[in-house]
Amino acid sequence: MTKVDTLIHCRWLAPVEPATTIYEHYSLAIQEGRILDILPTDQANSTYNADIEHSLDRHLLIPGLINAHTHAAMSLLRGLADDLPLHEWLNEHIWPAETRWINEEFVHDGTQLAMAEMLRCGTTCFNDMYFFPDITARAAAHCGMRASIGLIVIDFPTVWARDADEYISKGLAVHDQYRSDPLITTLFAPHAPYTVSDKPLEHIRVLADELDIGIHMHIHETAEEVDKAVELTGKRPLQRLYELGLASPALLAVHMTQLSADDISTYATTGGHVVHCPESNLKLASGFCQAQALVTAGINVALGTDGAASNNDLDMLGEMRTAALLGKAVSNDASALPAHEILRMATINGARALGISNDTGSLIKGKWADITAVCLDTLETQPLYDPVSQLVYASGREQVTDVWVAGQHLLKDRCLTTLDANDIIERAREWKTRIST
Amino acid sequence: MTKVDTLIHCRWLAPVEPATTIYEHYSLAIQEGRILDILPTDQANSTYNADIEHSLDRHLLIPGLINAHTHAAMSLLRGLADDLPLHEWLNEHIWPAETRWINEEFVHDGTQLAMAEMLRCGTTCFNDMYFFPDITARAAAHCGMRASIGLIVIDFPTVWARDADEYISKGLAVHDQYRSDPLITTLFAPHAPYTVSDKPLEHIRVLADELDIGIHMHIHETAEEVDKAVELTGKRPLQRLYELGLASPALLAVHMTQLSADDISTYATTGGHVVHCPESNLKLASGFCQAQALVTAGINVALGTDGAASNNDLDMLGEMRTAALLGKAVSNDASALPAHEILRMATINGARALGISNDTGSLIKGKWADITAVCLDTLETQPLYDPVSQLVYASGREQVTDVWVAGQHLLKDRCLTTLDANDIIERAREWKTRIST
Questions:
Q1: Looking at the domain assignment, is residue B435 inside a domain?
Q2: Which residue on chain B is closest to A379 by alpha carbon?
Q3: Which residues of A touch B316 (CB under 8 A)?
Q4: Whole-complex ipTM
Q5: pTM of model > 0.90
Q6: Fewer beta carbons within 10 angstroms: which end of chain A, N or C?
Q7: In which domain, by residue range, is B208 found?
Q8: Nearest Cα residue in chain A from B420
């Protein structure tokens, strides 16, 4: 018998790699935070013993979900201003609130609220873009959650930096600080083509090459963005990015709702990724991302919720369901984006986009033990013909019972182990009082 | 002090009538199943005493949700065949399974599973269309849930009836049996224009007039339906229904994804209702219902989940969220279908469509006490700037704690009081075993 740290036994296991596989009555052996073995439970019981053993015999285990586009701290603005036209929402509500309120405390409290919500819906890793990325990184590392921290760059001054040069230099400091942290990685995060000019984009491209990190950017989110760029420069934003050399396997293009068939095939040749945020695109009436067409073209499509101010939740299980349903309607094909494809988008595709697929995104030997357990024994997921179908189409976030990140048990029978939920709620209430008066 | 049966005190109350109102620290006094009074809690405490008193000081009370289009018993086919083209899904999976398995036991067990799920997501009333409507009616009455039972009519024979005449006569017997039941009402339910010929539709129109009941029908669900009708008859289905005299304030047209601007303005003049089923329309790639355009045209739009085989849940809270998000994208306007409008669609509009708006659909004096309580104190709905925004955009079904129908407490701190959840799950498992072997 080999001694391991933890053994998790489950009814069903969807490892994502190999694709579309479902194991029944399987176990995971975890040692020093990584998956040491994955094998039938009867073999596990005769091979390993463990200090900690979990029997999840009503549960499906999946790789921890990867939320590939967030503005975590914006959770504190959830529901501040809904049902408004995009321009009014941004100009009269969100931007003024951000200008007035964002500081280190806001980012800390908002990020904690977001992480608490994300863990409770099975998310183990998030890819963030916001001000004070140092605070976001510290909050994630402290909580034990995996995070990809966006080194935000915008042309105009904010409380975080005065100009593009300062955004970049402060971002590089964050990158240096966390370069050896096993949980925290960094990406450059120039906000969008319409808010970052050529010079900083060229600088970012050079630095991203040197440091071998990716670039996370909102691109072709709305028709207005594309039309205005054409009006001002004669070029569509993607064309400009191509000319600046930004399109490569290092690019994560978020939203991409405004793409012609030519755009899709050209983008596919660059090896760039797309982060699909269906609920935010719907809520802001940004347009429909042709997600199935992107997949068909061979583009790696990950999934994100966007910030809670435009969603208004960070529930990746719900986002998976919306992506699956909407994908069929948008491509006029009820067989588009099937459940297993959606699970890949929310796990391994996210890991690939973030450049961490050697470490997470599927349940295979050697990767970090980033694991989510979903109880499928509830009334709402009966009868159970196919566990992955029930996961995507019928499960709610409340069915997520346990979450591990790098083997650490961060959600235990729906209770957070490293975050204080009551304190987080209390601080959210205080922010509400401040912001709404 | 006046003695009443029940007093419910709450933090927030959205009565739906008057529109967009939110009361804070209000109470409902319930006597003999009906709302006797609705008033500030401090006044309630000095006016009424009650045998049963509930203090829901972290909760929003709303009228019980009305699911205006279901095939309840199909819950037993939830997830049997997902991600398939519509034709293959129906012809190779759903219809063969129905032909093989539907009987009184199937309808009883499937309806109980559906009602259990619906109560647990805040639904107090459902408008059903399925075979063995007598069994559905009996199950609902026995559970204490409000139901509008569709007297199904189809041209072809099934285990329920041989031909249109028999469907109609068996339907009339169900209508007679429940005509004085306070929970059960009936509607004629000719399945769709393409499955019911002119003669039975004319007969139904005459009977519906005589009995003063409505007509519940799938109409313009897919482009194929419309195209085939034009090919076969030279007429769009709606045109044929107009000529048959079926369009009137008694008609509930379900789906209506294929409508021109002219169709919308013409339908508005008939006074007919539309039941919008956004998730089913997405999942089956049926098309996009122009819900905001229908509302703008003055049409009463209710909301339904459709059956669990094409959704795959019966979660009206989730359906409200999808309707709100999708409505914005489809009308290219982020201010379309705001949260309060969505709450109306899921409550009073449903009651109007079913002809029961004098009895339910809003929390006003004299109506039945059909009430849903949603806890808004969870992490996922913090901070709380607007309770109805948080209800629609951030709440999950798990936040529904209590449900009353006609004053009977059917869901009590998430436990069903008149249905045996364990037994229902056990029977669903047995059906799964039978159906999948």
A1: no
A2: B425
A3: none
A4: 0.97
A5: yes
A6: C
A7: 65-354
A8: A379
